[in-house]
Amino acid sequence: MSRLARYLTEIRPTLTLAAPIVVGQVSQMLMGVTDSAMIGHAGTVPLAASAFANNVFTLFFVAGIGLMLPVSILVARARGARQLGDASEYLRHGITLALAYGVIETFLMVALSTQLARFGQPPEVVAIVRPFFVLLAVSITPVLVYLALRQFAEAMGHPWAPMFIMLAGVGLNAALNWVFIYGHLGVPALGLTGAGISTLVSRTLGVGVIFLWLRRDVRVREAWPAYWFGRYSMARFREMLHFGLPASGMLLFETTAFAFSGIMIGWLGAVPLAAHQIAISCASLAFMFPLGLSMAAGMRVSHAVGAGERDRLRAIAFGAVGVGLAIMAVFAVCLGLGRDAIAAWFVHDPAVIALAGRLLVVAAFFQLVDGVQVIAAAALRGISDVKLPAVITLLAYWGVALPLGYVLGIRGTMGATGMWTGIASGLAVAAVLLTARFTRLTRRT
């Protein structure tokens, strides 16, 4: 079989696994969009407070996502090796990590909630944000447990039920928002606090639903733990942290770099910041597609490692990169050609539309390299390479993207476009170095 034929053969199962994961990722974004829209109808101050609280929450959440990633990688590898008892143990240890880390983060966030005034936000925002932030803090434990269970299901080859559960969660969250934010069905209007209650309830119920589904699903019965707590293996915890801590670092380097780029663009004024928000919203939505592909590719690479089929690694990874490039090329064309029309969906200010249009042109290139780097990083996790990729990510975002963006956009004359050029350059560096790393490590296959 030719190399191209091998790559094409691997694309279909990757897409089959990736499709429901992509829908689930988009659903997560829709939950945030729904919250913003419904809170916005309660007033500008509640909307600003929710944005502030969610920005802080995201830093804690992203670190937790990284710690849960080993569940998918190690369960997929155990399944490939037909060691379903090991898959069970990785799920059990992953749930324990989720509970422990979630509780720690909850306490840290509750403590931080007493210091939110130190972030320099408007007094009217600080006055109402704490109850909402505390509710988000309590919700992080069910979120992490849900992630562990979802990744177990996906690694076992059953991604559709988690997708439908996530979609149902979006609908439930919107319905509860209608009740608690605006005050319906005899419930008082709680505004922003009501949105926090809705989020906590929908996330907690989501955990219960996916747990009960997995417990009853005969397809995963052999890998389902017979007990949950006790008889732990420190070696398994160390193995999971070996993957999880660098993965958390990579995600935090990227998240904080994007957050700080937004802060620097804010130094340029309200128009650049508004244009940046439009462009990053469009780029984030498009990113869900290669992100879903990367999760599927990472699990399939790890499954092939467990099965001893290392000759398939490049075909799986590079097939996913090819599909990712094709998808992101379509988004790039759409963003490039429709830039002004897209920006006009968000605002009516001509200055914001014009600048957002220029940023979307940069985003067209941004899409291609962003898709490559996230898939390459996942493929490297699949072959247990995590430490050097974390260093590469730190270099790309904090050594290239932010300094170059600052020089071009803040100190230079390019403004927000310069900042985005720097971010795109950092992503390009990450894409090249991570792909080269995977190519070198799989050279013999």
Structural features, described:
With 445 residues, the chain is an all-alpha fold. The protein contains 13 helices and no strands. The longest helix has 38 residues, at 3-40. The model has no long low-confidence stretch (mean pLDDT 88). It folds into two domains: 19-232, no CATH class; 244-445, no CATH class.
Features:
mainly alpha
Task: Write the topology of this structure.
Layout: H1 3-40, H2 44-80, H3 84-112, H4 123-155, H5 160-180, H6 192-216, H7 234-266, H8 270-306, H9 313-337, H10 339-346, H11 350-382, H12 387-411, H13 416-441
Q: Classify the beta-strand content into a percent band.
A: under 5%
Report on the biggest sheet: none
Q: What does the average pLDDT come to? A: 88
Helicity, as a percent range: over 70%
Structural class: mainly alpha
Number of helices: 13
